[in-house]
Amino acid sequence: MTRNRIDYGIDLGTTNSAIARMENGKPVIKKSDLQHDTIPSCVGWNRKGVLMVGDTAMNQLGSDRLRSHSSGSGKVENVFIEFKRTMGTDKRYKPVSVEKEFSSEELSAEVLKKLKSFVQDENVHAAVITVPAKFGTNQLDATGRAAKLAGLDQYELLQEPIAACMAYGLGNTEKNGRWVVFDFGGGTFDVALVKSTDGLLKVLDTEGDNYLGGKNLDYAIVDEVIIPYIRETYALDDVLDDPDKLGLLRDAMKRYAEIAKIQLSFKPEHHILSELGEIPLQDADGNDVELDLVLTRDRLAKVLGPIYQRAIDMTKDLLARNHLEHSALSAVILVGGPTYSPILRDMITAQIREPDTRVDPMTVVAEGAALYASTVKVSEEVASATRDVSKAQLDLGYESTTVQTIEFISVKVIGSNGVSGLVLELERSDGTWASGRRPIDSKGDVVEVELNESAVNGFQVKLYDAQGNRVDCEPDSFNIIQGTQVSAAPLPNNIGIEILRTQDKKRIFHVFKGLEKNTPLPATGVHNGLRTSADLRPGNIKDIVRIPIYEGGTDAHGSLAILNEHIYDAVITGADVPALVPAGSHVDLTIVTDRGVARPVRMKVFFPQLDEEINLEIPYSVQGEVDAEWLDRELDNCETEIDELEEVEGLGESDILSARTELERLRDRFEQNRKDYDAKKEVLEQLKTLMRKLDHLRTESSWPVLQAEILEVYEKLVKANADLGNQQTTMLVQHLKERMDQVFAEKNVRVAKGVKEEMDHLFFKLTEVYQLISTIRYYSESFRMIHWKDAVKAASLLERGRAMVASKPTVETLLPICMELWELTPDDERPTNPGGLLTDY
């Protein structure tokens, strides 16, 4: 059948997934073949190579991990789970039963196909798929590829906290306030701050960790409860002291930990007991290894408390940077299986506020995704492919969400299948309102419908012929959500590029104006006034301008680019330009993002002097595996950085102690999982966060020096403005003076550096003509030392330049001469910037 809205929502989770569809104005979970609301996000093959997805695969996972110990050849892998944590990477999964390797998105596609199969009455061609709020560009791209592999001709990605808010907000009578969505899932953690104003939902800010979730909880129980029990009870030093064998044992014990974690959400203690002979492992004394221990909720709280605390600390940081007290919150909404834990709920109540538990943490995201899907129009391509031409075809126009109680529906016939004299009636699904019958044709009509407040209003479309007989039509129903609207999804990260900062030659991450974190999508970012650092000679492919695109969190701007997430290197060569672009030429950049996937899709590079714009498509990319030895060195480098900072006067001891504690935690995590693809990526991402904090600490320690530098630049700027400025520049200088006084009072290093950059830039612009004069003088004095490509032409240019300098030189008259002289200078006699990065000025 043809739907005019997508109507399907999919929660593609790390450990569990679900699908929901809008039916008669309500989101309905489509139950699995075992009549469960969710299925495990688990994919595997049996020994004959037959594909299994969901519960059947999950049942085999535990036995496979146990058999790994008795195989004699290492890990037996036929079943995979938690592959969502390696989305967007080059990680490959190789089952032993089939001759093929699979990427994370290929496995995710199998989960999506399985979910689609639960819909018996129609094929699913379009869906809204939820993603963690902190998913980066590479992960979003991979999710999109999974959707296409699963046969979804149209898909839209929706951040999980927004989906949860849709479901929560619909039944909430309080339409004004600020909510926190606390989403602790199987593999990721997200927290979102959402503002509701008269039912209009807007995500103000997000935070999270793509490597914090139920998986971390399970392995904490393994490492701190089960493995110590085995070490004390059995003679297994040959296994426990071997990293490879220990890794296999940890994997095998994970399911016991997961069961214990779930059980202790509902009772005060759990007996971890394995079946006789279930674990195919004997110790050095010939004893069969068995589990027989009692885990209490109090003991579990000590084990899992530090992990839960990391999530709560992120939530508190989110509130702090938005200047919100806990008392200002209207609700804390829980999402994800681990939030059933009374341990976590008690911690949230004590440190934030008591959670609102009216929604089901396991299904709220899928239900909210379906609600959101009911507001997204089906593409013309999908509509055409699914249209049943044996039915009359209608075109409906309406607002899918509204805060009004009256909505106007435009209706017209676009195909009657030969039936004439058609009559239309709209009836609300609760049976308490109907429009009455009215003639309808290809010219169309507008029908006024009444809406129930704070509800999804489902409407049946009834069509009759001239004799009063029912005529099948498409669409035959539609939904309007009253009282809840979602503003555009926000950009999950800052997006920008790596540039070479002139003042200190550091390669920093510079956020584009318009692509700041939390900007509504779609978004367009610009950065004007950059400069090339090397020549681009037409036709010469060896001449390059490299523009690395990065994304990063709230602390990203001005940090070392390498400490953020790399997306793609845009490269322009001499083959892309029609004429010479000398080093130092102005470049203006624009990056455009997409609505549905929150990723950069296109870059525009404009060279003003050529009046030439180059358009670059930003392709999909994947991240490679983290090299263990390299990561080891980076951990050592971090320790060295902490040691050096410890010697800096003025830094708080608590900051250094906190950094050392975090580094020790990362080392422990790394040593437990040196060969685990996912774990190495997790350690690297959290190490980058730590290194950015250390970079900020070092920056803060340099305040006296920075303050003196700003005063020096300001004095030069005032003098240059007195000699060369005008009314406009004088106003700019006064504005910078006011900002300088403010940062001096606050001692805000980051803002102060920004003020200094602006002063430097204004000074450069004011004195640009002097710099060009200096260039003419330099070439004149160095004329005999330069191996000119054309000495006669260079001499002529210099003669013209000196004549202009002697009269009334301007930037417009001197710049062309300097550019030509630069072109005549041999390549190896010019200053260079390794890598061809753009510079700030």
* Poorly predicted tracts of residues: none
Helix coverage percent: 25-40%
CATH first level of the domain at 8-172 and 360-373: which class?
Alpha Beta
How many β-strands, per DSSP? 35
Which class of secondary structure composition applies to the elements? alpha+beta
CATH topology of the domain at 8-172 and 360-373: Nucleotidyltransferase, domain 5
Give an overview in words:
This protein has 20 helices and 35 strands. By secondary structure, it is an alpha+beta fold. The chain is 38% helix and 24% strand. α18 crosses α19. Among the domains are: 8-172 and 360-373, ATPase, nucleotide binding domain (Nucleotidyltransferase, domain 5), CATH 3.30.420.40; 388-465, Immunoglobulin-like, CATH 2.60.40; 494-562 and 571-610, no CATH class; 628-698; 704-829, no CATH class. The strands form 9 sheets. Strands 1, 2, 3, 4, 10 and 11 form a 6-stranded mixed β-sheet that branches.
Name a few traits of the molecule.
single chain, 841 residues, alpha+beta, Nucleotidyltransferase, domain 5, Immunoglobulin-like, six-stranded mixed sheet, 35 strands, 24% strand
